Amino acid sequence: MRYLTAGESHGPQLTTIIEGVPAGLPLLAEDINEELARRQKGHGRGRRMQIEKDQVQILSGVRHGITLGSPITLVVENKDFTHWTKIMGADPLEEENAEVKRVISRPRPGHADLNGAIKYNHRDMRNVLERSSARETTVRVAAGAVAKKLLKELGVEVGGHVLEIGGVKAEQTTYETLNELREKTEASPVRCLDETAEKMMMKAIDHAKENGDSIGGIVEVIAEGMPVAVGSYTHYDNKLDAKLAAAIMSINAFKGAEIGIGFEAARKPGSEVHDEIQWDIENGYTRKTNNAGGFEGGMTTGMPVVVRGVMKPIPTLYKPLQSVDIETKEAFAASIERSDSCAVPAASVVAESVVAWELASALVQQFGQDNMEVIKKNIVHHQERARVF
Ligand code: EPS
C-alpha cells in the first residue's frame, strides 16, 4: 500500500490518493472523521482549529461502504481558504503585490522556511511554509484511519498516549487494556494517563502561551495483536521497525524515535534487556517481558508493538527568535504566524496514524494484496503454524 498527499495549508483542500487497500474492507466517512476530530483536539491548539471542522469526502475506491481495491481518494476542505482565496489562488495576480501575496522574507528558525527557499529558489517563503506546515498531517491521519480500519478487521488494535510535555513526565503510564487507555486519554485534554501530570502539563502549556513560546514532548503508540514474524531481517528496507522509525521521524517537528525501551537499552546489560522466550499450547511462543517493543531482527515478536516519538516545540513563535531578512540580509525578528503553543496531543494521534499505516502495509504485503478474505485466511493459517512451530 502507498499514498501520496497534496495540498497547501491555506489552499482549498488537502487530498490523499491511497493505492493498494484490499477490496472488501468496510469503510465509512465517519470512521475517518472520528480520527480527524481527534487530531484537532488538545490543550494548546491555536485559533486555526476553531476555524476548521475537518470532514472527509471519499471520492473514489469505496462503493456502498466497502473498498473496491481501486485507488481511494480522500479530500478534506480547508475552511480557512475563504480568507486566503487571493493570497493562495492558482490564477496569476493582476499585479504583483507583496502585501496581497503576504510575502515572507524572514525565515523562522526551526521551520523549513530557509532551507526550503534555498532548495526551490523561492524568494517568498510562503511557498515553503504552505506545504511544510503540519496542516498536511490532516490527510495522513485520514490515510491512517483507513489503515486502522484494516488492522481492526485483522485483529490489531492501535492506541496512543502522551508521556511528556514541556519537561513534565507522566508517572502513571500503565493500563489494563487498550480500551481503557483509549477511554482515559480521550477524556484528557493532553491525552495523558496520569491525572496529576495532566494538570501540570496544561499549566506548562498555558505558561508557554502567555510567554509567546511553545513546548514539545514525547508520545507513545502501542499496537496489540500483530502476528509474529511480520517484516524481515533479510534486507535493510524490509525491516519493519526501521519503517516505523522513519514514519515517526516523518511527522512534522519530530526529532527522534524509540522502539521498546529504546535508548535505555544502552544503560543495561544484555541479561536485563532481552525478553526471555516461553511456550504453551494455547498461546505458542510468548515473552516474559517486552523490552524489545515487539521487534527482533526487523520482525514482529507477537508482543505489543511499542513506539515512541519526540516532538520539538513548534518553531512558529509569537515571541519570534532572531533571523535575517533574505532580501536585505539585515538581522530581524522572524516572521510571526498564527500557531499552536503545543501540538503534542494532536501529534500523538498523527503518530498512531503513521504507525497504523506501516503495520497495515506490512500485513497486506505479507499476507495477500487483493482482498480481505484471503488476507484473513492467510493470517489465521500463519498464526496456527507459528503457535505449534
Ligand atoms: C495546523 C494548521 C496550521 C497551524 C499548525 C498546524 O494552521 P495555521 O498555519 O493556519 O495556523 O496551526 O502548523 C504549524 C504551527 C506549523 O508550524 O506547521 C494543523 O491543522 O494541525
Automatic annotation (TrEMBL):
Q: Quote the catalytic activity from the record.
A: 5-O-(1-carboxyvinyl)-3-phosphoshikimate = chorismate + phosphate
Q: Which cofactor does it need?
A: FMNH2
Recorded GO molecular functions are: chorismate synthase activity; FMN binding
Q: Which GO terms describe its cellular component?
A: cytosol
Q: In which pathway does it act?
A: Metabolic intermediate biosynthesis; chorismate biosynthesis; chorismate from D-erythrose 4-phosphate and phosphoenolpyruvate: step 7/7
Per UniProt, FMN binds at 131-133, 252-253, 297, 312-316, 338
Query: Record's CDD domains?
Result: Chorismate_synthase
One of its GO biological process terms is:
amino acid biosynthetic process
Sorted keywords for this record are: Amino-acid biosynthesis, Aromatic amino acid biosynthesis, FAD, Flavoprotein, FMN, Lyase, NADP
List where the protein spans the membrane.
none
Domain of life the protein comes from:
Bacteria
- Top enzyme class, one word, equals lyase
Which residues are noted in the entry as NADP(+)-binding?
A: 39, 45
Give the EC number(s) under which this enzyme is classified.
4.2.3.5
> Which family does the record claim for this protein?
Belongs to the chorismate synthase family.
Stated role? This reaction introduces a second double bond into the aromatic ring system.
Q: How does it assemble?
A: Homotetramer.
- This chain belongs to the protein called Chorismate synthase
- Give the organism, scientific name: Fictibacillus arsenicus
